[in-house]
Amino acid sequence: MITTVDLAVLYVRDQAATVDFYTRVLGFHTVKDAEMWPGARWIEIAPPSGGTRITVHTASEFNRTPGEGAYLTLACDDAPATARELRERGATVTEPVTEPWGTYIKVEDPDGNDVMIAEK
């Protein structure tokens, strides 16, 4: 039986800039960085506590366009505090929004993808 989501794919314009954003700004760490074929890298990143990993691929290497792939929703303990911390790291972050199902913020990655961060 399926037990978890293991890996999501994110197709981007600039692999290095995206990995830098997710590691430096969002606090992820690099799990794997290996050559797939000459000029193409397989890079997996994960949040500090582990869990589902994201593989970041240069879109053109896979005949895709940036943003064609997974929509990301991350989790945090405190949305307002997370928004403040991400702004201090230079991210563009929305104000917290509270819906009947919970509170969330959105941050924009280097390709203009909105990444939702929901309070759990």
From TrEMBL:
<protein>
    <submittedName>
        <fullName>VOC family protein</fullName>
    </submittedName>
</protein>
<dbReference type="InterPro" id="IPR004360">
    <property type="entry name" value="Glyas_Fos-R_dOase_dom"/>
</dbReference>
<dbReference type="InterPro" id="IPR037523">
    <property type="entry name" value="VOC_core"/>
</dbReference>
<feature type="domain" description="VOC">
    <location>
        <begin position="4"/>
        <end position="120"/>
    </location>
</feature>
<dbReference type="Pfam" id="PF00903">
    <property type="entry name" value="Glyoxalase"/>
</dbReference>
<dbReference type="InterPro" id="IPR029068">
    <property type="entry name" value="Glyas_Bleomycin-R_OHBP_Dase"/>
</dbReference>
